[in-house]
Amino acid sequence: MTDDMNNEYDVVVVGGGAAGLSGGLMLGRSRRSVLVIDSGAPRNAPAAGVHGYLTREGTPPAELLDIGRDEVGRYGVDLVDAEVVSISGAVDVGFVIAVADGRTVKARRLLLTTGLIDELPDIPGLRERWGKDLLHCPYCHGWEVRDQAIGVLARNAWAVHQAQMFRQLSENVTLFLNDALTLSDEDAVSLAARGIRVVEGAVAAVESSGDKLTGVRLADGTFVEREAVTVMPRFVARAGFLADLGLESQEHPMGVGEHIPADENGVTTVPGVWVAGNITNLMAQVSGAAAAGALAGAQINADLIAEEIRSAVAATAAATV
């Protein structure tokens, strides 16, 4: 990463995770002038390794980013460590990106890959263990807690599904209703059939000793020993800097948080602006985010080519008059 950037680029990518770097790689290999701006706060920083990513299984997140930056840099892509505070403009006049230190840069097209924030319940002890033995995704970290005593902390009806998913990984799963969920008869039967214990009552804290989670403390003082706990965060897209651009996050159809809607190619409602990764797909893992970034990068290059063809045709026509 560097502090140097030009005044104008074909494409500015905001967010330097898997989606942003993958998009930058595709555009750099298309001989586009590209700037990737990253604030240095990756969502998966607490995790020990990236999982479910073929050929990169278990790679530490920081190492994966270093590899990606090196690859992207080989194709002339500029990478800057900065925080974007606002974006204005439009596709016909160009976009102006302002960063926190007061500098601005102009772009013909935008790729937004700033990811999301995991909003956890306000329960003591959760944040400290997040990404270690406090988890949410069975595919991201479930293998690492297999056969352990796992607790599922309910926030909504998704907790039943979550408990059943983690039951695939351990025979010792307990669902804490946490006064957030009333089970249907069907759910109660399905949980019992799979041997998933159900505990009623509000959760007061998740407790740890040293660098190890030890269990769940209920409001009535009851302590239930657990080696790992899973909870569904509320996923909120990092999109506060987009207000001047006319892009606003919307509630996700699944009721799990807020995202920036886009089509399958990452096209948003604002012409000239694409999104990829968790800012739009709240459930995307690292490999999915990288694939989406590559697709969006190719689509942006195609859009620029179409514009350049129109300009060349118009210029040729004008010259022959």
Task: Please supply descriptive tags for the structure shown above.
alpha/beta, seven-stranded mixed beta sheet, 19 strands, 27% strand, elongated
Structure description:
The chain is α/β, with parallel strands linked by helices and 321 residues long. The protein contains 7 helices and 19 strands. The chain has helices at residues 18-28, 61-73, 126-129, 138-141, 158-167, 185-193, 286-319, and strands spanning 8-14, 34-38, 78-81, 84-90, 94-99, 104-112, 116-119, 134-135, 150-153, 173-176, 197-199, 203-209, 212-218, 223-225, 228-231, 234-237, 250-251, 257-259, 273-275. Strands 1, 2, 3, 4, 5, 6 and 19 form a 7-stranded mixed sheet that branches. It has a 5-stranded parallel sheet with strand order 8-15-9-10-11. Helix 2 links the parallel strand 2 (34-38) and strand 3 (78-81). Helix 1 (18-28) runs parallel beside helix 2 (61-73) and helix 1 runs parallel beside helix 7. The radius of gyration is 23 Å and the shape is elongated. The model has no long low-confidence stretch (mean pLDDT 94).
* Major sheet: 7 strands, mixed
Beta-strand segment tally: 19
Q: Give the helices and strands as they follow along the chain.
A: EHEHEEEEEHEHEHEHEEEEEEEEEH
Query: Unreliable stretches, pLDDT < 50, 5 or more residues?
Result: none
Structural class, by secondary structure, is alpha/beta
How much helix, percentage-wise, in residues? 25-40%
